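In the lab's daily routine, each protein ends up as an entry in a very long ledger. A line of letters takes care of the sequence, but it says nothing directly about the fold. The three-dimensional part falls to structure tokens, numbers that each stand for a local backbone shape. The outcome of that step, for a single protein, is printed below.
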Amino acid sequence: MRDSWRLVCLRKAEPLMAQTFYEAVALAVDRGLSANSLVLCQPSSPYVCIGFHQDLDKEVDLGYCRRLGLPIIRRSQGGGATYLNADQIFYQLVAHRRDRVIPVRVEELFETVLAAPVRVYRELGLQAEFKPLNDIVVGGRKISGNGAGLIGSAVVLVGNIILDLDYDSMSRVLKVPDEKFRDKMAKSMVDWVTSLRKELGWVPDAEKIYHMLMRAFEDVLNVDFTVEKPSEEENLIWEREVRPRHLSTTWLGMSTAGGSDSEGRAVKVAGDVHVIEVDHKARKLVRVRAELVGDRIRDISVTGDFFLIPEDAILILQKKLVGAVLNEDDLDRRVRSFFAEGDVQMPGISPEDLVDALMKLRSRLP
């Protein structure tokens, strides 16, 4: 007998609700107030979304967004900054981890669940494929971005069906060193990110895609959906807990480290005290900013477009790294201790990747 799930179809919702209502559903699932659910929706107007571990002022052109009145929302999962509008249909899957309806391990979760949107793209005539870690591609070009995480005891997976893309806005909202860089970035987006309109020459009806997603997820998960409206409890959780958090300047502007505010990639503060920032590209970007006294870490921030489950485990990693000496043995011991001591997942980033990123700090010392 197949399990019964809820299908909550919000259709077009204002940006904050479209981006965050599934968090209220996840909290309700965690508290035993709601059953496993699939939420489908579209944002009714454009906005900019940044990943949980990203620095707002480093990723987004804040002046441009203010001039255009574009809201900026920090999501509760990892990933990179992006421009979103009604040309994306969101699917947001929420299930209690104890039910084992979907895999808890992130790599397996993506591979298993993304079979549903892959099927939708194929039924629309595209040769879509799952590309690890968390993308769906057509002809090597990305046509769906996805993220995952835990909210309490609820496993969540979020992603989108891309109907069309505004490449100019996608490149314009991001903070870049100069316009030549922006031009290059925009060209790369055109070359490597695609949409249904670009591939088919037209955009299918949204209601048709909602129905296709429902059927595909039913088959992939071996469940049956019952269409329901958001519950009273979910609406209250969103109004009283989720919405206020996302509207707070503390949440939007937070640093997951509380690290140094010094600007620059390599700044000598005094004597042997330096503030250094480095980027390391593995399968995901890791950005490390540290205050160093000699070759020892006094304070550190680790950000980027990676996924970390649970998200707030970044604070534990940073705490472990404080006091570390910039040599591979000490860093390797601390990083491996971080992964070994808790149920931590960092898909796309290995312990060796983190050590390599941290060792780049040494290369910037005079």
Remarks:
- The longest helix spans residues 15-30.
- The longest strand covers residues 3-13.
